[in-house]
Amino acid sequence: MKHLDPDWDMHNELGLPEFSLPRGEIAWAEVICHHAFGLGLYLPDFDAYAHVNIPEVADTVVHGPAEFPAIGSRVRARSFGPSGRPGRPLAMSLRGVAQEE
Q1: pLDDT at position 26, please?
Q2: What tens digit of pLDDT does each residue of 46-75 get?
Q3: What is the pLDDT of residue 29?
Q4: Low-confidence residues in the chain, pLDDT < 70
Q5: Residues 101, 81: Cα–Cα separation, whole Å
Q6: How far apart are CA 35 and CA 54, in angstroms?
Q7: Judging by DSSP bridges, how do beta strands 48-53 and 90-93 pair with one another?
Q8: DSSP code per residue over 44-99
């Protein structure tokens, strides 16, 4: 779990292991970082990382990290399928995904 290292940033890591989920598949994830352009996720069931672009953070308009789910919170996210960019995190969305356990 690289994200436990305070000096590691998944968005600057170009050598992430190749990982993909089929388009539309939903998985549990932990929010591990916030950025102006979105947030980072860790998928513990797959020991993998994913990214959510800001338009995909919520069903309503969000204006930045202050409105994102808290770092450390558990969320459900939907896969956009393979990123097509080797070494980059899987793209996912929180929109339209029920967050209840």
Answers
A1: 95
A2: 988 899 999 999 999 998 899 999 999 999
A3: 96
A4: 1-17, 82-87, 100-101
A5: 23
A6: 9
A7: parallel
A8: TTTTEEEEEEGGGS-SS---SGGGSPPTT-EEEEEE----SSTTSPEEEE-TT---
What pLDDT is attached to residue 18?
A: 72
Six-digit token string for 88: 């980059």
State how far the alpha carbon of 49 is from the alpha carbons of 7, 63, 67, 95, 99, in Å: 16, 23, 21, 18, 19
Structural domains of the chain in order of their starting residue, each with its CATH number: 17-80 (2.40.50)
Instruction: Measure the N-to-C terminal CA separation of the chain; round to a whole number of Å.
Output: 23
Phi-psi region of 6 (alpha: psi -120 to 50; beta: other; left: phi over 0): alpha
Enter the pTM of the model: 0.83
- Angle CA 34–66–82, to nearest 5: 35
Instruction: Enumerate residues 6+ apart whose C-beta is below 8 A from 97.
Output: 26, 75, 76, 77, 78
- Give me 44's structure tokens: 């513990």
